[in-house]
Amino acid sequence: MDVRSPFFQTIALILSGVLFLNPLVVTAADLAVATGGGATLTQAGNGVPVVNIAKPNGNGLSHNKFSELNVGQQGLILNNATSATQSTQLGGIILGNANLQGQAAGLILNEVTGGNPSQLKGYTEVAGKSAHVIVANPHGIRCDGCGFLNTPRVTFSTGKPVVENGRLDRFSVDGGEIVIEGAGLNASNIDQFDLITRSARLNAELHAQQLNVITGRNEVKASDLRVTAKADDGSDKPALAIDSSALGGMYAGAIRLVGTEAGVGVKLAGDMAASGGDIHIDLASGQLTLARAAASRDLHLEAEKIELTDTAYAGRTASVEAEGEVVNRKSLAAGETVSLDGAQVTNQGVIEAGVNPDNTRNAQGDVSLSGQSVRNSGTVIASRQLTVTGTQTLDNQGGTLSGQ
């Protein structure tokens, strides 16, 4: 018995309740394709909206344009199926996408040309062949319970996507904000998740595997996320490049945060945890304020000024570098090496190297404190080598320094 025969496919369609609808008459209050965008709208038998994406070019790019792009709690299906029918998690069995003409997309670019931010409150599923999904809206993106299915990589951007020679070359960012709120964002089933925007605000948890957050007025390469900062155009700058409240934690395998805008800082009051790699935060200038953070490998922080307000830990190396002041107010520890380097280095809490993840101690811990002015009123412990260098001032009043 061949269930791929037209007869059994017809029975499956009837049993699943698939609706045969004319895409020209299907409407959704929160989803509208732009004229000439190439995509068409329909829906699954259970009412979940389906976007029959535009036919990809020879490079596998399907460029879809929307005047409005929002996702309700019921979700959204991006139809990349070349078969006659396709089973989906959100909509059951749906019809394949005739727009594709047998060629599935490798990258699904969803560009919003209207004037409203995108509200994403449910899951977006790629039907058929898995593909990189991009949502690009210069007016902003808000996620409240959003997630994605059947895609290895997702990119949110408030930059304009620039396509050259049939390939997505870069995002040109001038403004816009990405907000994670309410029920948060779950990208833990996705290999890579990127936020490319002028500023980001996290008021809810974000879960991912490899997380990249790039902020500022930039040209950002789509392939490898190389960043070229734009010259200051005099426009109003956001108060913070990344603002994470106490409810806005980031939990990922590895985390990379980049801020390129002069004088615009980052405030991370929520927890940060990299369970399989590094936490890397690099600000061109401005202040970095960091609360609780833990990286299974390295913790690297670089900014104009850095303030550590809570407990931070790195399984291997913790490196903190600032042009101005570095302040540790509570606890900074690492399995192997801790280094603090700034014009002024102040420790009011505990700095310790040689601390294992289970809180036992090893004998490979080195600590280095270096600055024009070094002030320690807390405790600094190195299980092996301790180096403290103050080229102008070295003040250990009320503090403890311990090393081999």
TrEMBL record:
This is Filamentous hemagglutinin. SUPFAM superfamilies: Pectin lyase-like. SMART domains: Haemagg_act (SM00912). Pfam families: TPS (PF05860). It comes from the Bacteria. Residues 1-28 form the signal peptide. Residues 45-166 form the Filamentous haemagglutinin FhaB/tRNA nuclease CdiA-like TPS domain. NCBIfam families: adhes_NPXG, fil_hemag_20aa. Keywords: Signal. It comes from Pseudomonas indica.
